[in-house]
Design a protein that fits this description.
Distance between the termini: 185 Å
Radius of gyration: 57 Å
Structural class: mainly alpha
Mean pLDDT: 79
Number of strands: 0
Low-confidence stretches: 1-58, 166-196
Length: 849
């Protein structure tokens, strides 16, 4: 009888034939490991012998083991192997749990430790060393990034080294066949056995069965080395191929595909981290299962991990939302605290510091609360405006308006408030068209809102009145101011501090209209309210004092005017500093007063300071700058610096025409001043042309009966008088006198001037009786306005002497000349000239004093 062949591992000299043989064996293993368990295959011994080479039986048949006994012996031997493998696997599983490593990794490290050490102590030491080395390599692997090419290549090599225990593959041996069988599945050989086999032959059959399994395990080892995978993982790959019943010709391709995916899965699994210890432990179990190729186990663990992570994520979202809400509230509180600092600075009139606080508050709330950000920017803009920094004011007010246009509003009226605030700034910058548009838009928005927004309406209406006043639309301005005042009185009562601003505006309007008593009444009421509610040095008091002083000035009460302007100047300097832009108009008024009182040096100093402040705050092309230039030109003219005055007047006119238009009231003022210079230079044609253009603007804007119309008619009459057009001059002088009487009252110095001018015209027409009446009227007014020793009185006496002399009343004429003489001896150039004229007149009459 020929012996059964024993299949062995292919030697090194047959390595070239390995792929084809291995693939055939893999096909058998795939079928065995992956096929579902069913009825046993009935394979006869003869068939098995035929597969292995065949056995010839001849001669006498010896009765031996029965087939059932042979089958039982084979089953017992394999069962013993399985039991041993299962016991080892259980021990490895417990050890892998303790070490938190994959079972295949633990198996490999155990094998490596046992291969190099004999006694138990050396084995334990080597195994501990290998575990530490494996963990060290794994930790370093986690630091490598798969996103970087050079690290990705190193990572692949390192993963392969880990899978191999970082030893030469030739030295890497796996555990016993039993362990492999337990990991891969049972193999059962059953069938009929011919009676007559001896016990020795039965043992050889058992050995053949074991060798067949061993050969399959050897092929698994070779595939594991070829693929760079653990034996556990490779065995599981084969199981997957069997379960999916992959055709034989596709085995190599699919096995390679699974192996490639396995490498990527291991790399990704090592990156899995848990947010807490529980999930982190699950992720390590998942990584170990993937490394061993236990994909179903890994999938089940991942499903649990996903559910748990989603639960944790939801909890964290709720917690984060609360934390974020708390953080926003804390930021909002911090912003409110910073804004409160700004309010404290406002209460101390420290506007720049307040503006900086409001800007910081806006930065604190940032984009998370655009409504609050808009509110703080709006307040910052207002504070910068009060500080005179109009550029910064526009920047922040515009930003607030943009936010509110985008829907960032805490109240329905906020957008209207932004328009009103920006309009107020535009008005300060003399951008009247833009100011009017924004005030009108604010009014439209307020009127379209449900509920009572009357106070916000008052702001817009008052602003429109300011614009109308600046543009010379005084009737419209008066209507709007009165409406604004009525709103405040109705809502706040007659003594609320917010009334002071509107009352001051009405006072200024009526002063411009020469309605001095009404102007004074409104100013006084505003001043009483401001002093009752505000700090003694509040700028609002200075504004009202400035207006009251202007009324006193217009009524020639110069001492009251000087006191009011000086107090206003000190209040502004104390509250807002020496560079505050609101100081400019007060300084201009003091300059004009100083010039009127003959102190031209002081007048120039005031005007220069006003110009410096205004140009710094408003720029060189602002109407307020033009107004100051005009005052400075007046001073230069009074000093005899005619060329400089002409240059200054010309610059003021250009600025005013460029900003306000050629028909604005301020243009008329500048034209009148330039015409006065033309008169002094003998350019009467040009002077008359300018006076007439200014007169046309005055009549259209101020009305035909305004005092300024009377002044221009008086100046035009002077040109006609000098040219000998006496009838024409008389007509204009009479109109000028009537207007001045109605506008200024019978005791104003301008009335005396008008009477004297008219009397001179009548004298040239030899209407001496009428001239005497006007000269006497001029004297009466001058005596009420000036002191009895004033040079003006001396001039009036001289004029009466002249008209009486023309009427051949020498005694009366001499008496008036003699009354003028002592007054004219004041020692100034004008007095000296008048005294010479008086002495000459007395000598002509052959009289004496």
């Amino acid at each position: 009888m020929r012996s059964l062949p024993r299949n062995r591992v292919l030697g090194r000299d047959k390595r070239a034939a390995r792929p084809s043989i291995a693939l055939l064996v893999v096909a058998g293993l795939v079928a065995a490991l992956g096929a579902p368990v069913g009825p046993r295959a009935q394979v006869s011994v003869a068939t098995g012998i035929a597969a292995g080479g065949g056995i010839d039986i001849g001669g006498k048949v010896v009765v031996g083991w029965t087939p059932a006994r042979v089958e039982s012996a084979v089953q017992a031997a394999l069962a013993e192997d399985r039991q041993r493998a299962q016991a080892v696997a259980a021990q490895i599983e417990r050890l892998s749990q303790r070490l938190e490593m994959g079972s295949c990794t633990v198996e490999k490290l155990l094998h490596l430790a046992s291969a190099s050490e004999d006694d138990a102590a050396a084995f334990a030491s080597e195994f501990t060393h290998l575990v530490a080395g494996h963990r060290s390599v794994t930790r370093r692997l986690e630091k490598l990034s798969a996103a970087l090419p050079e690290q990705a290549a190193l990572r692949e090599q390192a993963l392969l080294a880990v899978s191999e225990g970082d030893y030469d593959r030739a030295d890497r041996l796996l555990v016993s066949a039993g362990v492999g069988i337990a990991a891969a599945g049972d193999v059962t050989i059953a069938g009929d056995v011919m009676i007559g086999l001896t016990e020795d032959e039965v043992n050889r059959i058992i050995a053949f069965a074991r060798d067949t399994v061993t050969e399959g395990l050897t092929v698994v080892e070779e595939l594991s080395a070829h693929l760079g995978m653990s034996r556990c993982a490779t065995a599981n790959f084969l199981r997957i191929l069997g379960e999916k019943q992959v055709p034989l010709d596709q085995l190599a391709v699919k096995l390679s595909e699974i192996a490639s995916l396995h490498v990527e899965l291991i790399a990704n699994a090592r990156l899995l981290k848990g947010i807490n210890p529980e999930i982190d432990r699950m992720k390590r179990e998942i990584a170990a299962a993937i490394e061993d190729g236990h994909y179903a186990q890994a999938d089940a663990l991942l499903e649990v991990a996903v559910l748990r992570e989603l639960e944790v994520a939801e909890q964290m979202v709720v917690q984060a939302a609360q934390v974020l809400s708390d953080a926003r509230q804390v930021r909002a509180n911090a912003a409110k605290s910073e804004a409160t600092r700004g309010d404290l600075h406002l209460a101390r009139l420290e506007y720049t510091a307040a503006a900086e606080n409001f800007v910081k508050a806006a930065e604190i709330v940032a984009e998370a609360n655009p409504a609050a950000r808009a509110r703080y920017l709006d307040k910052a803009g207002g504070a910068y405006q009060d500080a005179g920094d109009l550029v910064a004011a526009e920047q922040h007010l515009s930003a607030a308006l943009d936010l509110r246009r985008g829907g960032a509003a805490e109240s329905p009226v906020d957008l209207a408030v932004s328009h009103s605030n920006l309009a107020t700034l535009y008005f300060t910058q003399a951008r009247f068209e833009a100011a009017e548009q924004n005030f009108a838009e604010a009014l439209r928005l307020v009127d379209g809102l449900p509920g009572d927004w009357s106070l916000e309406r008052e702001v817009a209406v008052n602003g429109l009145a300011d614009v109308s006043t600046a543009l010379g639309r005084f009737d419209e301005a008066e209507r709007n101011y009165r409406e604004a005042l009525a709103i405040l009185e109705s809502r706040l009562g007659p003594q609320d501090v917010r009334l002071a601003s509107v009352l001051t505006n009405l006072g200024r309007l009526f002063w411009q209209l020469n309605r001095y008593q009404e102007a004074e009444d409104y100013y006084n009421r505003a001043l009483a309210i401001a002093r009752a509610h505000l700090a003694p040095d509040h700028p609002a008091i200075a504004v009202t004092l400035n207006g009251l002083a202007a009324v006193a000035w217009s009524q020639e009460n110069y001492r009251v005017a000087e006191a009011g302007w000086y107090e206003a100047m000190l209040l502004f300097e104390t509250a807002l500093g020496p560079r505050y832009v609101g100081l400019s108009p007060v300084l201009v008024n003091l300059a004009q007063l100083s010039a009127e009182m003959g102190d031209l040096a002081q007048a120039e100093a005031y005007a220069d300071r006003a110009l410096d402040i205004a140009e710094e705050a408003l720029g060189r092309r602002h109407p307020a700058v033009a107004s100051i230039l005009n005052t400075l030109g007046d001073i230069y003219r009074a000093q005899g610096r005619i060329d400089e005055a002409a240059r200054i007047y010309g610059r003021a006119l250009l600025i005013t025409e460029a900003i306000l238009g050629k028909d604005h009231l301020s243009v008329a003022f500048k034209l009148s001043d330039l015409a006065g210079l033309d008169r002094r230079a003998g350019r009467d044609d040009l002077a008359e042309q300018r006076y007439r253009r200014a007169l046309e603007i005055y009549r259209r804007v101020l009305g035909p009966d305004h005092s300024s119309v009377g002044i221009l008619l008086n100046n035009l009459a002077g040109i006609s008088f000098d040219r000998g057009r006496y009838a024409e001059a008389e007509e204009m002088y009479r109109k000028a006198l009537a207007i001045t009487l109605a506008a200024m009252g019978p005791t104003h110095s301008s009335v005396a001037v008008r009477h004297a001018n008219l009397a001179e015209t009548l004298m040239r027409q030899e209407r001496y009786d009428e001239a005497e009446q006007d000269f006497r009227a001029a004297l009466r007014v001058s005596e009420q306005v000036s002191g009895h020793d004033d040079l003006v009185i001396a001039r009036r006496f001289y004029d009466l002497g002249r008209v009486l002399q023309k009427q051949e009343r020498p005694a009366e004429a001499t008496a008036y000349y003699c009354r003028a003489m002592p007054i004219a001896q004041g020692g100034n150039p004008a007095g000296d000239k008048l005294r010479s004229a008086i002495e000459e007149a007395i000598a002509g009459l052959k009289g004496h004093c």
